[in-house]
């Protein structure tokens, strides 16, 4: 053990549980939703998960519709059935959409 | 011309963030750059260090962030750098902005019209993770981390980098880490050198320039309302900030200045 081993570098890989803990903690300072909405906002937003960048973002239905312009494709049997522009990475990608937006409890419960 | 915006931040307090902003601003001005220093700390140490009493100013960063006043109203022209002043009212901005959507982008928006006026903008962030620090990190192109050469400041870097990861994901994907500035360096201790080596290795973060040696002159300079470069030009710390400024600006460093910065006689 070296002199500074108690000082850990920031984790590069994080599981869902760690991500949600951060949302409850220091990410609460942010007003923009990176991974999940507040309980109040969940009925005003959808959760979009991107197959390409693996990020999950809460967006308004209007923003989701804009992401489908000028091109979108729906393939219902895919786990990510919507091909459109990802609101997180900006690339055209396969997306999974959930309404109302997922909350912390939804994410913790795999059902 | 569009300014390169540096946020100067560390979640640990007392690591010489403000001293770094004042000294770098003065050193970059010496090199011929147009520099704006922005005080985002409610303690308003930057404002005081340059000789201003923000309580008597027409507008401050609080008015810019909360009342959407143009940033230029808070800017004052000091002999060594332009400075956007702050006062204790800025603490209220944390509370007022807390309920506003898009609160992280207030400074970025306010800075946009002035980016063509300056070459370099330095943002002095407060030592906490709050709306003001997020505004600084969201408005910045690059992050400069002052690290006092001791364990707790080292730990502050780890905490700051977690915040930077959040900022990149949520508000500013283009934020890059320029490197760290080693401050209050005491060459007589092995601990100081060990901190520098460990920060550089653990986070793959480059040390900018040379370590800034501690001097009582740094503590005296704010009282005179001048940077260390004007107050005590001969101390190694002043030369160190000249080296750091030159490296950031990618201009050649004078060999004599580097020698003095390293504490060797010229």
Structure notes:
The complex is a heterodimer of chains A (111) and B (266). Chain A is elongated. Chain A has a domain at 42-111. In chain A, 22% of the residues are buried. Chain A has a 5-stranded antiparallel beta sheet with strand order 2-1-5-4-3. Chain A is α+β, with helices and mostly antiparallel strands and 111 residues long. The model of chain A is unreliable at 104-111 (pLDDT under 50). Helix content of chain A is 19%, strand content 20%. By secondary structure, chain B is of the alpha/beta class. Chain B has a single domain (4-261), classed as P-loop containing nucleotide triphosphate hydrolases (Rossmann fold, 3-Layer(aba) Sandwich), CATH 3.40.50.300. Helix content of chain B is 43%, strand content 14%. The longest helix of chain B is centred in the middle third of the chain and has 20 residues, at 151-170. The mean pLDDT of chain B is 91. The A-B interface holds A 2-4, 7-10, 22, 26-27, 29-32, 34, 55 and B 100-104, 129-131, 134, 151, 154-155, 158, 161-163, 165-166, 169-171, 191, 194-195, 198, 202-203.
Q: Estimate what percentage of residues of chain A fall within beta strands.
A: 15-25%
The chain-level structural class of chain A is alpha+beta
Order of helices and strands of chain A: HEEHEEEH
Overall geometry of chain A comes to: elongated
Q: What is the overall pLDDT average of chain B?
A: 91
Give the count of helical stretches of chain B. 12
Oligomer: heterodimer
Strand content of chain B: 5-15%
- Give the count of structural domains of chain B: 1
Q: Which residues of chain B form runs of ≥5 with pLDDT under 50?
A: none
**What is the correct CATH architecture of chain B?**
3-Layer(aba) Sandwich
Look at the helices and sheets of chain B and give the structural class.
alpha/beta
The third-level CATH topology of chain B is Rossmann fold
What's the helical proportion of residues of chain B? 40-55%
For the largest interface, the chains and their residue counts are: A-B, 16 and 27 residues
The rounded Rg of chain A comes to: 16 Å
Taking pLDDT < 50 over at least 5 consecutive residues as the criterion, the unreliable ranges of chain A are 104-111
Give the biggest sheet of chain B. Answer: 7 strands, mixed
């Amino acid at each position: 053990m070296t002199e500074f081993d108690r000082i850990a570098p920031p984790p590069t890989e994080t599981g869902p549980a760690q991500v949600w803990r951060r949302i409850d903690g220091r990410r609460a300072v942010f007003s923009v939703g990176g991974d999940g909405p507040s309980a109040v906002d969940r009925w005003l937003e959808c959760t979009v998960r991107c197959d390409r960048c693996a990020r999950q973002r809460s967006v308004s239905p209007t923003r989701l519709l804009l992401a489908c312009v000028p091109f979108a494709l729906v393939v219902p049997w895919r786990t990510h059935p919507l091909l459109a522009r990802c609101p997180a990475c900006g690339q055209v990608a396969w997306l999974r959409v959930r309404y109302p937006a997922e909350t912390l409890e939804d994410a913790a419960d795999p059902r | 011309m569009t300014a390169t915006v540096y946020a100067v931040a560390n979640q640990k307090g007392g690591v010489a963030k403000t001293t770094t902003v004042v000294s770098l601003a003065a050193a970059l001005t010496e090199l011929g750059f147009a520099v704006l220093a922005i005080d985002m700390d409610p303690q308003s140490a930057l404002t005081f260090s340059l000789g201003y009493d923000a309580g008597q100013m027409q507008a401050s960063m609080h008015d810019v962030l909360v009342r959407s006043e143009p940033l230029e109203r808070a800017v004052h022209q000091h002999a060594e750098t332009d400075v956007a002043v702050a006062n204790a009212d800025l603490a209220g901005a944390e509370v007022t902005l807390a309920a506003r959507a898009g609160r992280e982008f207030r400074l970025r928006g306010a800075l946009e019209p002035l980016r063509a006026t300056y070459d370099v903008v330095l943002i002095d962030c407060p030592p906490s993770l709050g709306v003001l620090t997020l505004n600084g990190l969201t408005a910045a192109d690059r992050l400069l981390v002052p690290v006092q050469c001791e364990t707790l400041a080292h730990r502050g870097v780890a905490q700051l980098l977690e915040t930077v990861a959040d900022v990149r994901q949520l508000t500013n994907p283009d934020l890059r880490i320029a490197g760290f500035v080693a401050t209050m360096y005491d060459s007589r201790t092995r601990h100081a050198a060990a901190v520098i080596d460990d920060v550089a290795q653990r986070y793959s973060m480059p040390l900018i320039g040379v370590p800034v040696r501690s001097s009582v002159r740094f503590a005296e300079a704010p009282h005179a309302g001048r940077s260390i470069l004007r107050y005590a030009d001969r101390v190694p710390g002043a030369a160190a900030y000249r080296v750091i400024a030159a490296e950031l600006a990618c201009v050649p460093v004078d060999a004599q200045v580097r020698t003095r910065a390293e504490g060797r006689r010229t």
